Amino acid sequence: MMNSMIIGKYVPGDSVIHRMDPRAKLLVIFIYVFIVFLANNSATYAILSVFTFSLVVLSRIPLSFVLKGLKPVIWIVAITFLLHVFMTKEGDVLYQIGSFSIYEGGVKQGVFISLRFLLLIMITTLLTLTTTPIEVTDGVESLLGPLKKVHVPVHELALMMSISLRFIPTLMEETEKIIKAQTARGVDFTGGPFSERIKAIVSLLVPLFISSFKRAEELATAMEARGYRGGEGRTKFRQLVWKWTDTAFLAAVLVLAVVLFALRS
Amino acid sequence: MDIIFEKVEHVYNANSPFARRALYDVDIMIESGSYVAVIGHTGSGKSTLLQHLNGLLQPTSGTVTVGNQTITNKKRQRDLKPLRKKVGIVFQFPEHQLFEETVEKDICFGPMNFGVPEEEAKKKARELMKLVGLPEDVLAKSPFDLSGGQMRRVAIAGVLAMEPDVIVLDEPTAGLDPRGRKEIMEMFYRLHQEKQLTTVLVTHSMEDAAAYADYMIVMHKGTVWKTGTPQQIFQDSDALAEIGLNVPETVRLKKELEKKLGITVPSPCLTIEETVDAIQKLFSKVNAHDE
């Protein structure tokens, strides 16, 4: 269960991508998510793929590691691909199986859409692989900073985000522990009739909720004991520094947008 | 029910970059009806070892035999359920497993999972309240309204209710006050004697190991470092210190006495009582000499 959970797993490193300002990374990805939809022919998809793979190479994270992150979504991609292959009726007929026929346009469309999916997931995986959760939240807080003027509780939102990220592994550990304790008491989490399965889930969720509430209270007390009073006037240990490389990456993705816009059909 | 480990190895996350070998070359034999203490430094593989006792973990290689059940890496989890009725595990902080609305329901949960009828389970729950030292009216309360110590007792009752032949205790008294500690350890010892319950105690307390166990397994870095009676194990305090363990206070007292006075104390001094006896003998020897 834990092994396929690659999203959120930071891989320490010292590459250009690792050293980027998290704000720049978030902006690049934000723009990327939109321009992915600009690509609509072979040339644009090729350029998009080259751009994405160059980023992976620059991060010096083994490609196999990034590809492993795609595993959980591979079924969604496969189904999307097949849907397009069978449902699109454009171009020449390639194959004819009974009343089903596969069109050239369908295959093309299927490949494009799946590629779009995979590239999107790859780039977001790359973000979490090269950025610590703390950096991401710092980045988000800083980028959303202007919203404070209209009374959006930006600091509180960022804090919520970092706390929940921080406690994912703790919760997973706790879950595993309780599963073991209840299994030792004869609960079968893997099968059995429906009513027993419900009971099994209850025996897991109740202790999990109770310990989470308890932990939340303890955390709040610990924070207050150390003088936490919210974001007002709070300085940061890690200062975000915008470097020329950050500007360069941002420029690169904007150039990419222009190129895609020019080449799309 | 004898428990035999043969060449047991356990690797977490096998075949992945995160693979970690937690146990290797473990050959042990736990005789039916014995009281065995497992000691070892944090991360020595104690917890992994004990989860093999009821098949929560299956060995990556080697075999674990519990009575007539053999556990290998090929066994399916579902086939291991009968084993879990025979081997009860009280995990660290067992109160974290409580979830029912009433104490009675929670205690009955284990036995009913193994097909014991409700009436019988309820009867058992009432009996167990006395055993774990709680008043009977607690049965109707919510387990979450109890104090920490009481919750611990309820959770222990929940495991005992399955009437296992083997009971595995993972630091059952962690976080309890000294009196609760003593009461719970004494209760398990009584159960062990009265019902010939095979007891496996994982502990950091050398005093508990010395006082109750008749056999000890010392774990170090994922394998068995030494086995023997408490007397044998605690003889060489220097070797134990090297792997981050120590000897009971009474044994240290004996060693210091021997060093300071240049004598040998024949008793192993594993408990307070034994130590007092040994010192008394020393005094009477000196007195006889003086007269």
Describe the fold and architecture:
The complex is a heterodimer of chains A (265) and B (291). Chain A is built from 10 helices and 2 strands; from the N terminus they run H-H-H-H-H-E-E-H-H-H-H-H. With 265 residues, chain A is mostly helical. Chain A folds into 2 domains: 1-131 and 238-265, no CATH class; 154-234, no CATH class. Chain A has a two-stranded antiparallel sheet. In chain A, helix 5 packs antiparallel against helix 6 (104-130). The radius of gyration of chain A is 23 Å and the shape is flat. The two termini of chain A are 43 Å apart. Mean pLDDT of chain A is 85; it is low at 1-6. Chain B has 2 domains: 3-247, P-loop containing nucleotide triphosphate hydrolases (Rossmann fold, 3-Layer(aba) Sandwich), CATH 3.40.50; 248-291, no CATH class. The radius of gyration of chain B is 21 Å and the shape is globular. Chain B contains 11 helices and 10 strands. The longest helix of chain B has 19 residues, at 272-290. In chain B, helix 3 (103-113) crosses helix 4, helix 3 (103-113) packs parallel to helix 5 (148-160) and helix 4 crosses helix 5 (148-160). With 291 residues, chain B is of the alpha/beta class. The interface between A and B is medium-sized, with 21 and 27 residues.
Total count of strands of chain A? 2
Main beta sheet strand tally, sense and closure of chain A: 2 strands, antiparallel
How big is the Rg of chain B?
A: 21 Å
Distance between the termini of chain B: 56 Å
Name the overall outline of chain A: flat
By CATH, the architecture of the largest domain in chain B is named: 3-Layer(aba) Sandwich
What is the CATH class of the largest domain in chain B?
Alpha Beta
Q: Please give the oligomerization state of what you see.
A: heterodimer
Order of helices and strands of chain A: HHHHHEEHHHHH
Largest sheet of chain A, order of strands side by side? 1-2
Q: Considering DSSP H and I runs of 4 or more, what fraction of the residues of chain A is helical? A: 55-70%
Total strands of chain B: 10
Order the strands across the largest sheet of chain B as they lie in space.
6-7-8-3-9-10
- Mean pLDDT of chain A equals 85
Structural class of chain B: alpha/beta
What is the number of independent domains of chain B? 2
Query: Largest sheet of chain B, if any?
Result: 6 strands, mixed
